[in-house]
Write a structure and sequence with these properties.
The protein is an alpha+beta fold and 399 residues long. It is 38% helix and 21% strand.
């Protein structure tokens, strides 16, 4: 049986979803996809970057990730809309539901893209390209937005194909098509080749994917270390990774935030850490896991970054315990420079079936704290995240 993999990617997802919602649910008359427009974060909260842009905006040179002032300089009449993540999650779920009607092996790669193993089911829907056209057209007619679909025999080539000409297209990239369709592209367009890697390859005269593919793999590894093996294989269309219908278990949990103002005192910073600890610990409990390592990261207003981590004596998912450890790490780490960004990250994930061992030196009633967390989780799940709020957060704007 021939392996057939689709990579399906929503065109300008956030902006497309906003456009469809405004047209069909709010009775709007302007399609954001047909004018210079973008979804962007709130500049007043220092999250003012472009998250998604329309094709007309792209023609002005506007890029995802650039700041709002930069985008406005390129296109003064650019229409900006705020993100609506609840809407995007609903659109993503509807998108994935359709894909799962065509195969039982669907790997959600991100909120707006997925890999689908069509090897067994493709015969039910025609030739691979015909089946891809069917899925693409159905998504448009039922959900109102367009997608690109890449068709190949592995995930790497399918993803590369879906990035060819946009929007609303189906492209194939079978191995026999690599030299014609992929090797002529700049090496910077190869999946897993970022800016730094591209610069290193450019510096040694490797400018296209074909030049990389035909280079000595040992030489590429000497330049890029372990990554060199991967990108050389990718340039030759080699990718053995399967489509995973079930997501692999998280190796770590974390959350971070850019603060709307410069934080110059420890009590305010620790309120931010408390908010982050709550969200991280709640996710741990929801997934039925605990962690052994807590890490705190600080980004100062000069954009310098530092981080520090500590291993816990016992696995934990209790908010107060994670928060206490984060505060200890913060006190060891902070150099009194104004703070722009704070983060908490955890690792060493284990099942929450682990039974805490009692210690003569314990001063906390961990069982009581666990019951408190469980009660808070239950209330927030039923009535919403804002149903219970710590008194420390009243009249505070920290995230």
């Amino acid at each position: 049986m021939k392996t057939v993999i689709f990579h399906i990617d929503v065109n300008a997802a956030f902006l497309s979803w906003e456009a469809v919602y405004r047209l069909y649910h709010k009775g709007g008359s302007v399609d954001l996809r047909e004018i210079p427009s973008a979804v962007a974060g709130d500049a007043s909260l220092r999250r003012g970057i472009i998250l998604a842009k329309s094709m007309p905006a792209k023609r002005y040179g506007i890029q995802t990730g650039e700041s709002i002032p930069e985008a406005k300089r390129k296109c003064p009449d650019l229409i900006l809309v705020p993100p609506n993540y609840n809407l995007y999650e609903r659109c993503s779920a509807a998108f994935m539901t359709i894909l799962r009607e065509y195969s039982d092996i669907v790997e959600q790669y991100s909120i707006d893209e997925a890999f689908v193993d069509m090897s067994a089911s493709c015969r039910l829907f025609g030739e691979p390209k015909q089946a891809a056209e069917t899925i693409k057209n159905r998504i448009y007619h039922e959900l109102g937005f367009t997608v690109n679909i890449g068709v190949s025999e592995n995930k790497l080539l399918a993803k590369m194909a879906s990035d060819f000409r946009k929007p609303d297209r189906v492209h194939t990239l079978w191995k026999e098509e690599i030299q014609k369709k992929m090797w002529t592209l700049p090496v910077s367009e190869l999946f897993f080749v970022g800016r730094a890697t591209a610069r290193k390859l450019f510096s040694v005269g490797i400018r296209t994917i074909g030049e990389l593919a035909q280079s000595d793999p040992a030489y590429i590894k000497s330049i890029l270390k372990k990554q060199g093996e991967v990108v050389w294989a990718f340039a030759n269309g080699v990718d053995p990774s399967p489509v995973l219908a079930k997501e692999p278990a998280n190796k770590g949990y974390g959350n971070s935030t850019t603060i709307p103002f410069d934080v110059t005192d420890a009590p305010t910073a620790k309120k931010v850490l408390l908010a982050l600890s709550e969200t991280v610990a709640a996710r741990l409990r929801a997934d039925g896991v605990q962690i052994r390592v807590v890490s705190v990261s600080i980004k100062s207003t000069d954009f310098s970054e530092r981080s520090h981590q500590r291993m816990l004596m016992q696995p934990a998912n209790i908010t107060a315990e994670i928060y206490h450890t984060a505060c200890v790490l913060f006190d060891e780490l902070w150099d009194n420079c104004p703070i722009r960004h704070l983060g908490i990250h955890t690792s060493g994930v284990t099942s929450d079936s682990f039974t805490r061992q009692m210690s003569l030196f314990d001063r906390c009633d961990y069982e009581k704290l666990a019951r408190l967390d469980a009660a808070v989780d239950a209330v927030r799940e039923r009535f919403g995240a804002d149903a219970l709020m710590r008194a420390a957060f009243l009249d505070q704007s920290i995230s």
